[in-house]
User: Which sequence fits this backbone?
């Protein structure tokens, strides 16, 4: 229970990548973390790319970065929707300024791009958004997981074990 007492917020919207949302949530809960889901609306059912549902606990606008120790952004097509909400971009920026762990996998990099926090950061993602990441000023690496300070990034579902190992390590640090 390495994360007992830690609170983590995961963002959600329709067409999230099912494994990239649920695997991290379940692993973090196994480690004792409290994980909440935030979506466009509270208590809304969102459907993943492969039909797995997820119900939000809160609306994006109701999340205060000070209430959470870390942030997760899943991949799939959801990040293209999630990044359109100013309150999400503000949340990402506040988490970044506070150096709280931010996990992003696959297409989730789009959210960090729109929040304008990647300049000079080392990251990875699905190769399909490599140009987007580099155009945002990031140094893109083709590795299963890349850690740059409090940012933990990963490419795709087969990399989930590496991704969560590093995200859990970042979330258990005493600076939270």
Assistant:
């Amino acid at each position: 229970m390495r994360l007992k007492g830690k609170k983590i917020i995961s963002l959600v919207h329709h067409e999230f990548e099912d494994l990239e949302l649920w695997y991290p949530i379940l692993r973090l809960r196994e480690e004792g973390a409290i994980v909440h889901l935030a979506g466009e609306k509270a208590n809304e059912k969102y459907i993943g790319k492969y039909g797995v549902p997820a119900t939000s606990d809160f609306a994006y606008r109701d999340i205060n970065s000070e209430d959470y120790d870390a942030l997760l952004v899943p991949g799939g097509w959801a990040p293209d929707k999630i990044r359109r909400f100013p309150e999400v971009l503000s949340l990402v920026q506040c988490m970044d300024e506070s150096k709280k762990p931010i996990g992003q996998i696959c297409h989730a990099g789009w959210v960090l791009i729109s929040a304008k926090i990647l300049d000079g950061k080392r990251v990875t993602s699905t190769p399909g958004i490599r140009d987007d990441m580099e155009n945002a000023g990031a140094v893109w690496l083709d590795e299963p997981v890349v850690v740059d300070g409090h940012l933990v990034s990963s490419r795709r579902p087969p990399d989930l074990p590496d991704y969560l190992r590093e995200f859990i390590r970042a979330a258990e640090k005493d600076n939270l």
User: Anything to note?
Assistant: The chain has six helices and eleven strands. The two ends are 16 Å apart (CA to CA).
